[in-house]
Amino acid sequence: MAIESFESKKLSRRSFISGAAVATAAAAVTGLVGCAQPQAAASSASASGAESASASASEASSSAESRASASAASSTKATSAATTVGYDGTGAMPWLGEAPTIADSDVEEEIDADVLVIGLGAAGVPALRAAVEAGAKTVAFEASTHFNSVASDMAILGGETQAKWGRGEGFIDRNLIISEHMKECSHHGSYEIINRWADVSGEALDWFVAASPSLYFVKDDAYEEIPEEGQKNYMFPYCYPVPETYKWEEEDMPCYPTSVGFSSLGPIMSDNLQIAVDGGADVRYSTRGICLITDSKGAIAGAYGKAADSDKYIKVNCPAVILATGDYLANEEMMKFYAPQCIENEIPILSLDFDAEGNNTNVGDGHKMGAWIGGAIEQWHAPIIHHMGGGAGPDGRGVIGNNGYLWLNLRGKRFMNEDLPGQQLENQVELQPQRKAYQFFDSSWPEQLAYFPMAHGVACIYREEALPDYTASGLRINVRTKEDIEAAIDEGRCLTSDTIEGLLAQIEGMDVETARLR
């Protein structure tokens, strides 16, 4: 296939499939509340999908001639298929249960404080530090044996840190970003909250990274070589510099060059938490928040917690409680209520945080505590089910990413405009027979990648050599080497053949005659 036809976007379906590669898409991974897909979690979910692949790989050819390949990954069963239940019009919440009744005799320790933070993750740790720096006497409960650090990317507008890469104040029209956010969420989101993010996210990032003196800042290129002393704690800007072939201003659903990433949030989170501890924060690990305390007027007066090794409770008297307990993915009853399609379709979940006994910590504790005292829970919940390309490997990357190559369902039909972000692409795959589709690409892919948008999940950079081992997982998403594809073939995540007929014959359930007409 000539690169000119791809660049001019006049590629016919028939010329595209001649010597193509295919990836099967199926239910990917689910996340609620958070917006970044943690790569470690994606690894386990993707590996499970690969184990249930319905297509086997043929021997790969090292020839430079155009050849076809296909990868298949089907959804795995991570939850029961029991009857789901959502809103029934009565206002009942079957997942809620009753708030526990705790007597004074059940309390083994009582603490007076100004602020209690329940949950020490990406939200709780900064909240604790901010409260300490504001002069508050603080206490923190965390159900795990340590603070939790999952995601490693942040969407940021402006600020001095972004200015290091020419992306400070005024780099992008903030009103354009806000409007796009609201539009993509069908205006279910709060304009006030998104507007607040646009106003202060840059300043907040500056404050957050100032806590970590060892943090190394990438200077000239997101993929520049990092000195050894900076490899475990560095920060980089996504899409930097923006490839000449990526015109985000011309994209229907652009990936704006405003996000930043970290080698790992662990070191910088630890540094932020240490500031809080040094400032007097009383941190209690292996301690769950149980329920809130209100006074006679209904105002917050504190909360109860419970250590894992005790049968009694800790009572914290305070006028402010910050609930930072995360999502409710591991609570199947809540998932049935708010996101029943995830249960019915048996979509795998991302759940990485556990307590001292190995139990999930993201079970909706904070939601329950708020609801028990009359707090309202929004009625529209959006599970983050996004596609990273067919046949994802242990690192969570699809064989060739969620690139806009030709995608066919098992009926042999093209069913969408493939130029879609991962969330919308997944939504389309979910509508197909067996929730499965195949993505076709040919041996010209190394030259073609540069003409795909630099977006989440998209392979748009070809390299002869593999990235260094220390490279952040987020940066790996956009890069492919020949070794990546060969590994996918060897592992059975990608099918290959020298002919279209040979390729289609390997895809179980494919309507070959219809597919050949594409």
Percent of residues in helices:
25-40%
Q: Provide the gyration radius in Å.
A: 25 Å
The major sheet is characterized as:
4 strands, mixed
Unreliable stretches covering 5 or more consecutive residues: 1-82
Strand content: 15-25%
Number of helices: 17
Count of DSSP strands: 21
Mean pLDDT: 84
Shape assignment: globular
Distance between termini?
15 Å
Helix- and strand-based class? alpha/beta
If strands are numbered along the chain, what order do they take across the biggest sheet? 4-14-13-12
What is the total number of structural domains? 3
Molecular structure report:
- The chain has 518 residues and is α/β, with parallel strands linked by helices.
- 26% of the residues lie in helices and 16% in strands.
- It has helices at 3-7, 13-17, 39-51, 124-133, 160-163, 174-184, 191-209, 265-278, 332-338, 340-344, 365-372, 422-429, 445-448, 473-476, 482-490, 500-505, 512-516; strands at residues 21-23, 29-31, 68-71, 107-112, 115-118, 138-141, 153-155, 216-217, 234-237, 259-262, 282-284, 287-294, 300-307, 313-317, 320-323, 384-386, 406-409, 437-440, 461-462, 479-480, 495-497.
- Strands 4-14-13-12 form a four-stranded mixed beta sheet. It has a four-stranded parallel beta sheet with strand order 11-6-5-15. The protein has a four-stranded mixed beta sheet with strand order 7-10-9-8, with no helix packed on it.
- A hairpin with a 5-residue loop joins β12 (287-294) and β13.
- α4 packs parallel to α8 and α6 packs across α7 (191-209).
